Amino acid sequence: MSDLQFQKFELGPIGTNAFLIWEENGTDAVLIDAPPDAKSTIEPMLKLRGLQLSALWLTHGHWDHMAGAAELTSGDMAGLGHKDDLELFENPECMSSFAMPGMDFQPIQVTQWVSNGDKLDLFGRVVDVLHVPGHCPGNVAFHIPSKGWCFVGDAIFAGSIGRIFTGVISPHWKNRSRKNSILSRDLPLFIRGTDRIQLSKVKW
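Above: the chain's sequence. Below: its structure in token form.
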């Protein structure tokens, strides 16, 4: 099995992280999150590396993570998200009150709804889906055990827990089995504002 590669991009008006993942010598790539105008950066990178975007995995439905999805998804490409953020994916105009002025909101069609405990395939590697609501009802993290990587969206920020926008701290965080899925493993997290951070460095 060839080595797994990724590249981080800070995109859109507030520098939201997106991650392009591919296998060395492979032809397909997966993008985690699609900030506004992601296409203008991601497509040249795909061409440079001889890759085709085969799937888009969305950590949650906030505009800065999904506003570039509509222009990137096409054909049979898989678009993954959690159904608790369906309203944000399909009616993004509802975020106009807290988005950047002049945003052009385009709804996106999620082709595969994921839930806590689901297993995804990433070029022959298992990816665990962790439902970590609080920042958004449908916030999910993608954990790749074979690499020790965990892409968490805005569930955790650099140096702190993620900002709570929707409701209160979810009971999912208080459920020991789900909490342990992230908190008991000192994983490298790929989050806003840094390449990676160990959980031991996070202030809870």
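The helical segments are 39-49, 63-66, 86-90, 171-174, 176-183.
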